[in-house]
Structures are given as structure tokens and as C-alpha cells.
Amino acid sequence: MFKISARPLRSAFVRYSSNTVKPIVVDNKSYHADEWTNVPPYILKLIDRKLHKNVNHPIGILHDLIRQNMEGMGYTIYDNFHPIVSRYQNFDSLGFPEDHVGRSTSDTYYLNKDYLLRTHTSAHEQECFINSKTPGYLITADVYRRDEVDRTHYPAFHQLEGARVYDKGDLEQIQQDIDAIPQTNIIVEDPFRENPVTPNNPGQKYMTDEEIRLVSTHLKKTVEYLVNQVFERARESAKKAGSTEPYLNEPLKVRWVEAYFPWTSPSWEIEVWWKGEWLECCGCGVVQQQVLLNSNLGDQKISWAFGIGLDRIAMLLFDIPDIRLFWTQDERFHKQFKQGEINTFVPYSKYPGVKRDVSFWLNRDYKLHANDVMEIVRNRAGDLAESVVNVDEFTHPKTGKKSQCYRINYQSMDRNLTNSEINSIHDKVVEDLVNRFKVEIR
Ligand code: FA5
Ligand code: MG
């Protein structure tokens, strides 16, 4: 990943109200605004939705299913953490470098310099390591990221975190737990199973090679088991619904690839082969000892952790074509899902999109990040923003001025849009680009 300074650039700081000194109040707590503040009101409204706790919503159904499969295996369940966390929780406690791009205002929603919307469930690892009375824990929560706009990306999504702690040297216990994980018949491609440590993915010095091998094996088998349970359930329901697609009779295929996270080493991601594509599902690794030391666990523990993205898996399980649908309030969506059941979503309609381009010269004094454009569009169009794509970019050979063109597709999942309605939204988007980033419309 490339790195940029995590300090807020004046230009990347988007103000949503002219009265910026007004504090932001969320759930009766007040946060003073400062030059880091960039969370728009329409994002704060999502906090109340708690889709993972709605047992009749696809995200809640998936959450339930995973929980059931992990019951009795020694995990304490946490699903009530508030999404506003401190910078310490989200980044410092996990050893994020000061200049990590994840800390920047172009990637993360800040209430102010010290508080932000968590970008991942790992923000709660330390408190769970401290408080959990069982060897493991699971955390489910909504997480928030400033990100691109498309069918599989939404600024809010859900993660399930898992972790497990062992006593150093207790190889027998780890082996016993590995053997207790139910067998699956999935095809696993893992070049690192016997030798988890490679030059790019180092082990930690305080562990023996055998400890690393065993704890990684337990981690990976746990994740494989979970993925298998979920996808087998989806396969069963597809067959029950009468589907005869050939993939339903093929064994599930997964592969492990090396990854990097500041608070784990070695680290991996698991990808699942589903309908002809590798799908990134989960990041994980062996927890850095510093995190365990900070959690008062002493220097004789080893641990693994993983973080699964729930929304994309739910899109596959329920055959949901657009991630925005999870957030719709339309009854035609909600009445299709019931606790404990995985069924295929039946689209109630497909309304055409309306495309609009905006082309402009950038102002040299203002840095315009693609995520800033995404956010301006979302702020004006809400869920009518179907996608925002940078379709053209060039530098004028004489003046050196830079030009960009973004193509916005406005589309509703619930109704037809009129041209005049789109025009007035699009005009506001253009206005915001001019006012905030001093671009010159072409
Ligand atoms: C993490 O968030 C780490 N906290 C995972 C982790 C936990 C690593 C514990 C080590 C130990 P990552 O940014 O890759 O990693 O996100 C994890 C998963 O969330 C991804 O595999 C993906 O399934 C999902 N995800 C990430 N970004 C989005 C998005 N914008 N929309 C939907 N799902 C997403
Ligand atoms: Mg990733």
C-alpha cells in the first residue's frame, strides 16, 4: 500500500455546515469540531440502523448463522460496541505507523482529532483481550470508511472479528483444539501451511517455529470451517430453490495469500472461489506480542485474530446485486428475509440509471482526492448515487493544468427518477466542487 501523510490537508477537509464551531452530538455525547472533522450527517444517521442485530435482515441472518456455528467452542460474543472510538482504539493500540494512509481524513470519518467512526472491528481487540473470560471472543459491528462508490462498496459495512489466546508452550492444547474443529471437504490451496514464515511475512522472535505453525493452523482451520459452513448453507438453499447451476455440485475452493496488517505477523487473507471469481473475504494473522502486552496478558501468551467482511458474503448468499439494498427501507426488500433462512433475493424492479459527467480543471492549491468527489456526490444524492467513476484525466501540454472528468450514475432502487430531479442534484454537486475545491468547470 502506498503511504501518504496522515495529517489533514486543508483541502481534503470537507465542511458540511457553515457553522463549523457547533459541536456534533451523537447519542447524547458532544464532540467539538476541529480541522479533522469530516463526518457528514448522512453517515451519522446510519449508526442507528444496527443491521447486524436485525435477525430478519440478511446481515443479521448471516451474523446469527456464524454465531451458531461457533457456539460451545469457547468464544465470548460482543455485538454492542458503539461505533465512535478513539484514535487510540482504532490505530495506536494496534501499532499503526503515524503515516499509515488509513489514518488520513481521505480514508476515515473523524468527529474530531481524537474520535472517529471505527474503520474495522479490530478497534476493540485490546478491550476484548483485557475483558474476555473465555480463551476466545467474537465481535460483530458496523464499520465505516470513506471509499469509492459502486455495487460492492458502501461507506458503511459490517465485520466479524474473532480471536483466540493460548499459553505459550502449551502445544498439546493447540493440537487438541485443531483436532476438535469439524472436518470439511473444501479444497484448500495453502503454500504456507507447513512453513508459515517467509521473508515477506516474518514470524515473531518470542515464538518457536512449532508454536507459529500450530497457532496458524488453528487460525486457518477455524476460518475455513466458518467459510465452509456459510457457503454450504447457501448451496443447500440454492438447490432447494431449484437451482441446477454446475457450481453447486463442485467442492468449495479457497486459497490463502500473504498479507500485511500492522498488528499481526505473519498475516494472510483468505479468498473464496465463487461463480468464477476469487473473492477476498477475511484478513487475519498471529497477533503481535505488543498488543497482548498492552492488554495485560503478560509475556507468556500467543494469539491469533481474524476479521471477516459480512456484506460481500451476504451479497453472495442471498444473491443481492447491489450493496445499497442492505440499507433500503423498502418493504419489498425486507419482507423477503426471515430469521435463520437463506433465500435468493427476487429483484422487485430495475429502474434505469441517469448518467451525468462533470469535467473540470483542478486548482493547483487544492488537493482533490477521488474519495472527496464520491463524498460530495453521496452527500447530495444519498443512495441515488449508484456509481462515481473517474473516466478521464490529462495534463495540458502548455499550461501544465490538470483536467479530470467524473461520470456519475444516478439510480434509484425503488422508483423512476426524473431528469429535472437529477439535474438539480447534479448542479449542487458541481457547485460543491467549485466552492470547496475551486475547480474550474470546462
Ligand atoms: C481489516 O479490516 C482487518 N481489521 C482484518 C484483520 C483482523 C486482520 C484481525 C488481522 C487480524 P481489511 O481492510 O482487508 O482488513 O477488511 C477485511 C474484510 O472486510 C475484507 O476482506 C472485505 O471482505 C471486507 N471489506 C473491506 N472493505 C470493504 C468495503 N468497502 N465494503 C465491503 N466490504 C469490505
Ligand atoms: Mg484487505
Briefly characterize the structure:
By secondary structure, this protein is an alpha+beta fold. The chain is built from eleven helices and 17 strands.
List the helices and strands and how they pair.
Elements: E1 24-26, E2 29-31, H1 41-44, H2 58-70, E3 75-78, E4 84-86, H3 87-90, E5 110-112, E6 115-117, H4 125-131, E7 136-144, E8 156-167, H5 171-180, E9 187-189, H6 209-240, E10 253-258, E11 264-274, E12 277-287, H7 289-294, E13 301-309, H8 310-317, H9 331-334, E14 354-361, H10 370-381, E15 385-395, E16 402-410, H11 419-437, E17 440-441
Parallel strand pairs: 3-7, 9-10
Antiparallel strand pairs: 1-2, 4-6, 5-6, 7-8, 8-13, 10-11, 11-12, 12-13, 14-16, 14-17, 15-16
Helix pairs in contact: 2-8, 5-6, 10-11
Number of strands: 17
The run of helices and strands is: EEHHEEHEEHEEHEHEEEHEHHEHEEHE
Task: Please identify the top-level CATH class of the largest domain.
Answer: Alpha Beta
Number of domains: 2
Ligand names: adenosine-5'-[phenylalaninyl-phosphate], magnesium ion
Q: Could you say which structural class the secondary elements and strand pairing correspond to?
A: alpha+beta
Provide the β-strand percentage band: 15-25%
Q: pLDDT under 50 segments (min length 5)? A: 1-19
**Could you give the order of strands across the largest sheet?**
3-7-8-13-12-11-10-9
Shape from CA axes? Answer: globular
Kindly, what is the distance between the CA atoms of the first and last residues, rounded to a whole number of angstroms? 33 Å
- Whole-angstrom Rg: 23 Å
